[in-house]
Specification:
This is Fe2OG dioxygenase domain-containing protein. This protein is an alpha+beta fold. The chain is 30% helix and 12% strand. It starts with 6 loop residues before the first helix and ends in a 15-residue tail after the last helix.
Length: 309
């Protein structure tokens, strides 16, 4: 199999065993066992009324802060993005990936400056194992691609969904700023919400899901860096599934594909004699280049260690 052949094509071929290139190291699979504990749940935060009621706003800010300090992630409901829009976005991703390979191959590239990038593994040459998923992604802000450069089967919903996500993201940046004890616009004024990357994953059914992992990139490390460890970033992974394809859309507020000279370090307003800076400054691009250059599953350690003082 060449890397210009999609993973979906491999799965559709009726394989019964996962090729060795997809086998995750045993120590990685066993390091984070999957919990079947029904009592285990992540924080769910209701955003209903967050812009209208000061009391509700404070309660939500407290919940966002607690989740960001303890868990590093949380789920939101009543976030303002219509279910119909989310469903159409997922359908659009499915339509793209289930097209004829001859149609999709025009988007295949490892040149991340292209308007649309389609491949199986961005870190093919640095990871210990290949991930079980195909992906296409596009930079939707601050310089969105031309409509004609986006795939026809999903271009309209990509534009619509990205606008909705930008609105939600700006609200979340306000809540995160307040949770840090800062003014609501602090993170937005730092341009934390200026760039948007949309990654559209497709996980085919896997004959041996216990051997393969699927991931979405978690770049929450930068929020941990600028908050000087007030907020924590946790490793994110997705198990491969045995029943049919699964799609997901991950949107990241990042300018990593642009040569932006802005330096990010611990926010000065959060520092004190008892809380000195723990990280050196870096550009978003330099951070992501270092992080991606290691591969997603290099050794289980955070790339943040490279930037600690």
């Amino acid at each position: 199999m060449t890397q210009k052949l999609e993973l979906k094509g491999l799965a559709d071929g009726g394989i019964t065993k996962v090729p060795r290139i997809f086998h995750q190291p045993p120590e990685k699979l066993h390091k984070f066992p999957v919990s079947n504990d029904s009592q285990f749940s992540i924080p769910v935060i209701d955003l209903e009324g967050v812009n209208n009621d000061p009391i509700t706003r404070k309660e939500v800010v407290d919940k966002v802060g607690n989740a960001s300090r303890k868990w590093g992630f949380f789920q939101v409901i009543n976030h303002g993005i219509p279910v119909s829009v989310m469903e159409e976005m997922k359908d659009g991703v499915r339509r793209f990936h289930e097209q004829d390979v001859e149609v999709k191959k025009q988007y295949y590239t490892r040149d991340f400056t292209k308007p649309v990038v389609y491949n199986s593994n961005f870190d093919l040459y640095t990871s210990l194992a290949v991930n079980w998923r195909d992906t296409f992604f596009s930079r939707m802000a601050p310089d969105p691609p031309k409509m004609e450069d986006l795939p026809p089967v999903c271009r309209d919903i990509m534009v619509n969904y990205s606008k909705q996500v930008m609105n939600l993201g700006n609200l979340l940046l306000e809540l995160l700023s307040q949770a840090l004890g800062l003014k609501p616009d602090h993170l937005k004024d730092m341009d934390c919400g200026r760039g948007l990357l949309m990654l559209c994953h497709y996980y085919p059914g896997c004959p041996q899901p216990e051997l393969a992992l699927g991931t979405m990139i978690n770049i929450g490390d930068l929020l941990q860096l600028i908050s000087n460890d007030a907020f924590v970033s946790v490793e994110h992974r997705v198990l491969a599934n045995s029943d049919g394809p699964r799609v997901s859309v991950a949107c990241f507020f990042s300018t990593s594909l642009k040569s932006d000279p802005v330096l990010y370090g611990p926010i000065k307003e959060l520092l004190s004699e008892g809380n000195p800076p723990k990280y050196r400054e870096t550009t978003v691009r330099d951070y992501v280049i270092y992080s991606n250059g290691r591969g997603l599953d290099v050794d289980g350690t955070s790339p943040l260690l490279h930037f600690r003082l």
